[in-house]
Design brief:
Two copies of one chain form a homodimer. The first copy, chain A, is built from seven helices and six strands. Chain A has 202 residues and is an alpha/beta fold. Chain A folds into two domains: 49 residues, Helicase, Ruva Protein, domain 3, CATH 1.10.8; 135 residues, 3-Layer(aba) Sandwich (Dna Topoisomerase Vi A Subunit, Chain: A, domain 2). The first copy, chain A, is globular and about 65 Å long. At the A-B interface, α1, α2, α3, β2 and α4 of A face α1, α2, α3, β2 and α4 of B.
């Protein structure tokens, strides 16, 4: 809990809000507030405007769940992208990661999380129903399940695979193995075992 | 440098501003932006308003340099505080730390940094002149130099001590030694040596 520092309600309120940003705690929120005040014109006011503007204008895409000003989003609306392949990811951050890599030119579908018995997240809490609707579209030829390589991510991928079996669609998943630049000595046993079992002819 | 992730200028702009907050890098700024959008009404809009409002209303106190809506600040204006003693600190964060401790009831003077040959910070870049003016006031009986126990902090304290010698004022500094709760085994040699040299009768 944030303890009042400045005896100044307005500043305290700002610090308490800043401390709720993931990555900032009460201490770094105080440091951040002071830095922001020092850089009022180049950082603080622009940030206030950017926050207000994004809150107003950025919304999840009705089709894929991506965040964008346009709705449907610029990826769904981009005619140059492959409209026959959908990559299913957990979160918009994963979509951004794939877009940074720049090697996927199809469409996306953001689940909005993973199934989790522990956290009480069931199929209805994720964008699975809308994925089924898109899969029913005769255009779609392949669905790549790119959930994280975690227990919850893989459970979710398995569940979706089961649901998709009724459609005549190729279902694939990302390859698991040694990351590029990775040294065997530093890899965990699970990754090494997977890499060995999935070995491919040179 | 932040690499565009979302292909969305407005979001990219927000992320690039967030990544300039101390404590957040490009990666955590992306995470923060997504969290903020998820919590639009409870976090994002209030934060935008708080930033704009603090940018507009909070200013450094003309007397001591503390940040406040009022000017002079609520500490300078508080008649119940001891008006004869000034505690000199480097930064507003240090003022907040002392106020949290709650054991000092005098006035403050914020230097705004330390002397640093390396960073090209000279006496004129700090609020030293205004401190001299306050010291010239016949009310002031003691000045506590509470700069950090770093090389720059101590150099600055030494410089100010020299400047204050012409006034008939008691000049003191914070005690150095073993922190409360500190274990000798984990302390650095400098602190242990200081604690030993400054030992006091039981």
């Amino acid at each position: 809990m944030y303890k009042s520092a400045s005896n100044n309600n307005e500043l305290d309120h700002l610090i308490s809000l800043l401390s709720k940003i993931p990555g900032l705690g009460p201490r770094s929120a105080r440091r951040a507030a002071l830095q922001l005040i020092k850089k009022k014109d180049v950082l603080m006011r622009p940030l206030a405007n950017a926050l207000a503007s994004v809150a107003e204008n950025v919304h999840p895409c009705v089709t894929c769940g991506n965040l964008d000003i346009d709705n449907p989003c610029h990826i769904c609306e981009n005619g140059k992208r492959d409209q026959t392949i959908i990559c299913v990811i957990e979160d918009v951050a994963d979509l951004w990661a794939l877009e940074r890599a720049g090697s996927f030119r199809g469409l996306y579908h953001v689940l909005g999380g993973t199934l989790s018995a522990l956290d009480g997240v069931g199929p209805d809490d994720l964008n699975i129903k809308s994925l089924m609707e898109r899969a029913g579209d005769s255009n779609i030829k392949e669905i790549i399940l790119a959930t994280n390589a975690t227990v919850d991510g893989q459970t979710t991928a398995y569940y979706i695979t089961e649901q998709l079996k009724k459609f005549d669609i190729l279902i694939s998943r990302l390859a698991h193995g040694v990351p590029i630049g990775g040294e065997l000595d530093y890899l965990d046993d699970g990754t090494l075992t997977t890499a060995l079992n999935s070995r491919r002819p040179f």
